[in-house]
Design brief:
The structure holds two protein chains of two kinds.
Chain A: H1 3-32, H2 39-52, H3 56-62, H4 68-76, H5 85-98, H6 105-123, H7 126-129, H8 131-152, H9 157-186, H10 210-226, H11 230-237, H12 243-252, H13 260-274, H14 280-294, H15 298-304, H16 306-329
Helix pairs in contact in A: 1-4, 1-5, 1-8, 1-9, 1-10, 2-9, 5-6, 6-8, 9-13, 9-16, 13-14, 14-16
Chain B: H1 5-10, H2 27-34, H3 38-55, E1 58-60, E2 69-71, E3 74-81, H4 83-107, H5 112-115, H6 121-125, E4 147-155, E5 159-166, H7 173-186, H8 188-193, H9 202-212, E6 223-226, H10 235-245, E7 248-250, E8 255-258, E9 261-266, E10 269-272, E11 275-278, H11 282-285, H12 301-306, E12 311-313, H13 319-322, H14 324-327, H15 330-338, E13 345-346, E14 350-351, H16 355-363, E15 368-372, E16 381-383, H17 389-401, E17 406-410, E18 416-421, E19 424-433, E20 435-438, E21 442-444, E22 449-453, E23 467-474
Parallel strand pairs in B: 3-23, 5-13, 6-7, 6-11, 11-12
Antiparallel strand pairs in B: 1-2, 4-5, 4-20, 8-9, 9-10, 14-17, 15-16, 15-17, 18-19, 19-22, 20-21, 22-23
Helix pairs in contact in B: 4-15
The chains are: A mainly alpha, B alpha+beta.
C-alpha cells in the first residue's frame, strides 16, 4: 500500500488512542479527587497528569495555577496542547480524512461523526458540566472506532498499520502511567510502601501507616481503573490489591489487553505480517523486547528498579516507532 | 435587481405546462409527492442534511483561509428527464465529445482545421491554453478528453443548449452518485413506482475507460487518482472515486520518476504507475516543465508522458478545446470532423474581440450574461438583468480594457424545476452536467449533476455562488 496511506492510518489510530488514554486518566483523577484529601494532595495528582505526558512546561507557560479546572481545560480543549483531547481527535480526523478513500464508509463516518459531535459537545460546555459523561463518550467513540475497524476493514496491511499505531501508543501510555504512580509512591508523599519492597536504587524508606495502606488501595485501584483492569485484577489474583501485582499485571501478563507485553507481542506479530526488505532489524528488536517481557519476572524488575526499567522501555518503544516510520512510512525516494 | 421577472415568468417549467397540467413524465412523481405529508418531507430534508454532513460530503470554499467545510444544499425534488429527451441528449453529447477529441488531436498534430480556415491560427497558437509541449506527441488510443462534463441547459420552449464544455478536470460526478444514494434512501417507495435508469456503475465505467487507455505493453495497468490534497475543494470527490474504483489516491509527493517511469512509494518499495487520473491542473503537474513553484506535482512527469510511458487523463493541453472562444466553433468542428449536423445547439454568443460585436455587447449589457473567456465556477461573470447600474458600468470598463477576454450570451430563460425553498415549493432555475467518458468507445451514464439556483430569479447555479443540487432521474421508458 501507499506509504503515506500507511502513515495516515498509523497516526489516525495513535491519536485516537491517545485521546482515549487522556480521557481515561482524567476520568480516574476526577473520581480520585472526590475522595477526602487535602488540597496539596489534590493539586499534586493533577500535576502528575501533566508530568505523565511531559506537559508540565507547556502548561506552566500558559496557566498560573494548577486548579483542576485549569488542568481539565488544558487537557480537554486547549488547541495549543498537542495532547489535549481536542487536538488528538482533530488530528485523528485529519488523518482519516486524508485516507478516507482507504477506509470503509462505516469507519470514515465513525471518525467524522466523532469530530462533529466533539465540536458540539465542546460548544455546549459538556466537559465542564458533566465531565464524567464526556470522558465516557470519548472512550466510547474510540472503542466504537476499533469495533467498526474490526467489523468492516479488510484484515490486510492497512489493519496492521492501524494496530501498530494503537499498540505503540498504548504501551507508551501504560508505561508512563506506571512510572508516574510509582514515582509518586517513591517520593513517599503518602508515606507509604504497603507490602511493596521498592527498588534499592531509589532507597525509599518510610514507615507504612494505616492511613497510607488505605490510600495505597485507592492509588492502585485508580491505576487499574484507568486501564479498565480492576475486574481483570480480581479475576487473576483473587486477592487484595498490591503494587507489585499491579505492576506484574500491567507489565508482564500477555492476556491483559493494555499490558506492556500484550502490546509488544501485537507489535511484533504485525511487523512479521508487513515485513519488507528493510524491516528485518525492526522486527528483531520488537521480538527481543517481547522475549524480555515474556520471560521476565516482576521480582527482578522491581529489584533492579522499576523506574529505570520503564525508562528503558519507553526508549525502546520510541525507537520502534521511529524505525517503523523509516522502514515503511517515509521511505527514501526510489 | 430590476427586470428579472420576465426571464422567470417566461421560463420553461419542466414539471408543469403553461396550462398548469403536470407534464406526463412528472406525473408519477407528482402523485407520490401529493401523498406525502408536509411533516414527512421536512423530516426527509433534515435527514438528508444530517447524512451529508456525517458522510462528509463537503466542499471547501476557495479563498476561505479557515478551510471551512460547507455542504452543498441538496433538494429532494428530482429533475425528471423522459427517455426520449435523454436519447437526444445522449447522442448529442457523444457526437460533441467525439468531435472535440478529434479537434484536440488535430491541434496537436496537423492543424487541418486551421488550414481549412475554420478556425484562425491566432486563436489557437496565441491561446494560453495551447500547450506547445504536446505538439506531435501521440497519446494512448488518441484519447485526450477521457472525462468530459458538458453543461447543458433548457430554455425557450424546452430545447437543449450546450452552455459550456469542461474538458480539463470536470468535477461534480460524486454528487450525481451521492444524490442518487440519498434519494433512494429517503424515497424508496417513489423508486419502487417509477423506473429510473441507474447511475451507480459510473466508477466501473471510468475504471474500464482508464485501463483501456494505458500505455501500450502494460497488460495489467495500475491506475491511480492524483489529488492536490485534502484542502482542495473537490477532495471528497477524489477520495470517493479512488475508493469506488479500488485504486490508490495519491498526492504528488507519493509519486516519483526514475529511468523514464513513474512510481509510487509503497510500504513494499516503488510500484510502477501506468495511468494517472489527475485532478490537478496542467500548470501544477510537473514543476520542471510548468510552474516551478508547484509542490503538488511530480518532477519529471512530462518527459515520461511525452515518451508514452504513462497515461494522463485527461491529457495535457485539453484546455484549448473548452476555452469559451473555441466553444463558438464546436458546431463547425462537428461538421468538419464528423460530416454531421450538430444535434445539440450552442447558445448564441458574441465575441467582444470583434469590434462590431463588442459595441453590441456594450450597448446591451443589461440584457446579456458576460463571461471571462477562461473563467470558471461563476467567478468573473456578470448577469446583466440582475446587476445594478453601477455594476454594469464597472463591468463595461473591464470589458473595454481587455475585450478579447470576454464573451457575451443572451440571458437565457433557463428552465425551472420545483424546489424546496423557505416559503414552500417554488420553481427555480436549473442546469445539467452529464458526464461523458471517452475511451475506445464513448459512454455516458443516464443522468448527471443537476445544479439549481436557490435564490429566486437567480440564474447562477454554481455551488460557490450559493447553488444547490438535485438528483436527475432519467426514466427507463416512455410509459412514465
Amino acid at each position: 500500500m501507499l506509504s503515506r496511506t500507511a502513515d495516515n492510518l498509523f497516526w489516525m489510530c495513535r491519536y485516537l488512542e491517545r485521546a482515549e488514554n487522556t480521557a481515561r486518566m482524567l476520568e480516574v483523577n476526577l473520581q480520585m479527587s472526590l475522595l477526602p484529601q487535602d488540597n496539596q494532595t489534590r493539586d499534586n495528582s493533577w500535576r502528575a497528569i501533566l508530568r505523565l505526558s511531559e506537559l508540565e512546561q507547556a502548561f506552566d507557560t500558559e496557566y498560573s495555577s494548577t486548579t483542576p479546572r485549569d488542568v481539565l481545560h488544558f487537557m480537554v480543549r486547549d488547541p495549543a496542547n498537542p495532547s489535549s483531547i481536542y487536538t488528538c481527535l482533530r488530528a485523528a480526523r485529519e488523518n482519516a480524512r486524508s485516507v478516507r478513500g482507504s477506509l470503509t464508509t462505516d469507519l470514515w463516518e465513525t471518525h467524522n461523526f466523532t469530530w462533529l459531535e466533539l465540536q458540539r459537545l465542546l460548544a455546549e460546555g459538556k466537559p465542564e458540566r458533566h465531565p464524567g459523561e464526556f470522558f465516557e463518550w470519548v472512550k466510547f467513540r474510540s472503542q466504537v472506532a476499533r469495533g467498526v475497524t474490526e467489523g468492516t476493514m479488510m484484515a490486510d496491511e492497512s489493519m496492521c498499520f492501524q494496530r501498530l499505531g494503537i499498540n505503540l501508543e498504548r504501551a507508551d501510555n501504560t508505561a508512563r502511567l506506571l512510572d508516574v504512580k510509582f514515582h509518586e509512591q517513591a517520593q513517599g508523599e503518602a508515606q507509604a510502601q504497603g507490602e511493596l519492597n521498592l527498588s534499592r536504587t531509589e532507597q525509599v524508606q518510610s514507615a507504612p501507616s494505616r492511613h497510607s495502606a488505605h490510600s495505597e488501595f485507592y492509588r492502585w485501584s485508580a491505576i487499574l481503573g484507568s486501564v479498565s483492569a480492576l475486574e481483570n485484577y480480581r479475576k487473576v489474583y483473587r486477592d487484595v490489591i498490591t503494587a507489585d501485582r499491579v505492576a506484574e499485571l500491567l507489565i508482564l501478563r500477555a492476556d491483559m489487553p493494555r499490558s506492556l507485553l500484550a502490546c509488544v507481542l501485537a507489535v511484533s506479530a504485525d511487523l512479521k505480517r508487513i515485513a519488507n526488505a528493510d524491516s528485518a532489524e525492526t522486527e528483531r528488536r520488537a521480538g527481543k523486547l517481547a522475549a524480555e517481557l515474556q520471560f521476565g519476572r516482576i521480582e527482578s524488575i522491581l529489584e533492579d528498579g522499576l523506574h529505570p526499567f520503564l525508562d528503558r522501555f519507553l526508549k525502546q518503544i520510541n525507537d520502534l516507532g521511529n524505525r517503523i516510520s523509516q522502514d515503511f512510512l517515509v521511505p527514501l525516494s526510489a | 435587481m430590476k427586470d428579472q421577472t420576465p426571464a422567470s415568468t417566461r421560463a420553461y417549467d419542466e414539471m408543469v405546462d403553461a396550462h398548469g397540467t403536470v407534464r406526463p413524465h412528472y406525473r408519477a412523481f407528482e402523485r407520490w409527492l401529493s401523498e406525502q405529508s408536509a411533516e414527512e418531507m421536512v423530516t426527509r430534508r433534515l435527514e438528508a442534511d444530517i447524512n451529508f454532513r456525517r458522510v462528509g460530503i463537503t466542499f471547501s470554499v476557495a479563498g476561505d483561509e479557515a478551510g471551512t467545510e460547507r455542504l452543498i444544499p441538496f433538494d429532494l425534488i428530482p429533475r425528471v428527464i423522459p427517455a426520449s429527451d435523454w436519447r437526444i441528449l445522449d447522442a448529442g453529447l457523444k457526437q460533441r465529445v467525439r468531435a472535440l477529441n478529434r479537434f484536440i488531436h488535430d491541434i496537436y498534430h496537423d492543424h487541418d482545421i486551421v488550414r481549412a480556415g475554420k478556425i484562425s491560427a491566432a486563436q489557437i497558437f496565441t491561446n494560453a491554453q495551447y500547450r506547445p509541449e504536446m505538439q506531435d506527441i501521440d497519446v494512448a488510443e488518441d484519447i485526450y478528453c477521457h472525462v468530459a462534463g458538458i453543461d447543458v441547459v433548457r430554455a425557450g420552449a424546452g430545447e437543449f443548449y450546450v452552455l459550456e464544455d469542461n474538458l480539463r478536470v470536470p468535477s461534480g460526478v460524486s454528487y450525481m452518485l451521492e444524490n442518487r444514494k440519498m434519494s433512494m434512501r429517503l424515497m424508496p417507495e417513489a423508486f419502487s413506482r417509477i423506473k429510473v435508469e441507474p447511475v451507480a456503475h459510473y466508477p466501473d465505467l471510468l475504471l474500464d475507460n482508464l485501463r483501456e487507455c494505458a500505455p501500450r505493453g502494460s497488460d495489467d495497468p495500475v491506475v491511480v487518482v492524483l489529488t492536490p490534497g485534502m484542502y482542495n475543494s473537490a477532495y471528497f470527490e477524489h477520495a470517493f472515486l479512488a475508493q469506488q474504483m479500488g485504486v490508490e489516491l495519491v498526492e504528488g509527493r507519493d509519486l516519483f520518476v526514475d529511468r523514464n517511469t513513474v512510481y509510487m512509494r509503497t510500504t513494499h518499495g516503488p510500484q510502477r504507475v501506468d495511468v494517472i487520473y489527475r485532478r490537478l491542473d496542467d500548470d501544477f503537474l510537473d514543476p520542471l516543465a510548468f510552474r516551478g513553484d508547484s509542490v503538488l506535482g511530480v518532477p519529471g512527469l512530462l518527459s515520461v508522458y511525452r515518451a508514452g510511458r504513462v497515461t494522463l487523463a485527461n491529457a495535457i493541453g485539453t484546455g484549448i478545446a473548452d476555452d469559451k472562444s473555441i466553444y463558438l466553433g464546436v458546431p463547425d468542428m462537428i461538421r468538419f470532423y464528423l460530416g454531421e449536423e450538430p444535434i445539440l445547439n450552442n447558445v448564441p454568443t458574441w465575441q467582444c474581440a470583434r469590434p462590431d460585436e463588442l459595441s453590441y455587447v456594450l450597448a446591451n449589457m443589461h440584457e446579456l450574461v458576460v463571461k471571462e473567456v477562461h473563467g470558471a465556477g461563476g467567478y468573473g461573470m456578470l448577469v446583466g438583468p440582475a446587476s445594478t447600474q453601477a455594476e454594469l458600468e464597472a463591468f463595461k470598463r473591464r470589458v473595454r480594457a481587455n475585450p478579447s477576454n470576454y464573451i457575451a450570451q443572451p440571458t437565457l430563460a433557463l428552465s425551472t424545476v420545483p424546489t424546496y425553498v423557505e416559503s414552500g415549493i417554488a420553481p427555480r432555475h436549473v442546469d445539467l452536467r452529464p458526464y461523458v467518458l471517452c475511451g475506445k468507445e464513448i459512454n455516458t451514464v443516464p443522468g448527471g449533476l443537476c445544479r439549481v439556483a436557490l435564490r429566486e430569479g437567480s440564474l447562477v447555479v454554481n455551488s460557490s455562488q450559493g447553488g444547490g443540487t438535485k438528483d436527475t432521474w432519467v426514466l427507463e421508458d416512455e410509459s412514465c
